[in-house]
Amino acid sequence: MNRRSLLKGAMGLGAAGAAGFPHIWIKSADMAYAAGGEIKIGILYSLTGTTAIIETSLNHATLMAIDEINAAGGVHGKKLVPVVEDPESDPATFAQKARKLVLSDRCVSVFGSYTSASRKAVLPVFEKYNNLYWYPTLYEGRECSQNVIYTGAVPNQQQKEFVPWLVKNFGKRFYLIGSNYIYPKEENNVCKILLKQLGGEVVGEEYVPLGHSEFSSVIQKFQDTKPNVIFSTVVGDSVVALHRQYKAAGLDPAKMPMASLTTSEEEIAAMGGEFAAGHFTSAPYFMSYDSPENKKFVESYQKRWGADKVTNFVSEPAYFQVHLFAKAAAKLGASDLHPAEIRKAAWGETVQAPEGLVKIDPDNSHTYLWPKIGEAQANGQFKIIEQSKEWVKPLPYWAYEGEVCTPTGMMEKKS
Amino acid sequence: MTDLANQIITGLSIASILLLVSLGLAIIYGVMGVINLAHGDFLMLGAYAVWLMESALGLGFLPCLVMVFFIVGAIGWLVERTLIRHLYGRPLDTILATWGIGIILQQAIRLSAGAQLRYVKMPDYLVNPLHLLGLDISAYRLLIFSVTIVLVAVTYILIFHTSFGIRLRAVMQNAEIARCFGINNARIYSLTFAYGAGLAGLAGALVSPLKSVSPDMGTKYVVDAFLVVVSGGVQSLFGTVASAGIIGELSGGFAYFWNDTLARALLFFLVVVLIRFRPQGIFAMPLRRG
Question: What interface predicted TM-score (ipTM) does this complex get?
Answer without folding.
Answer: 0.80
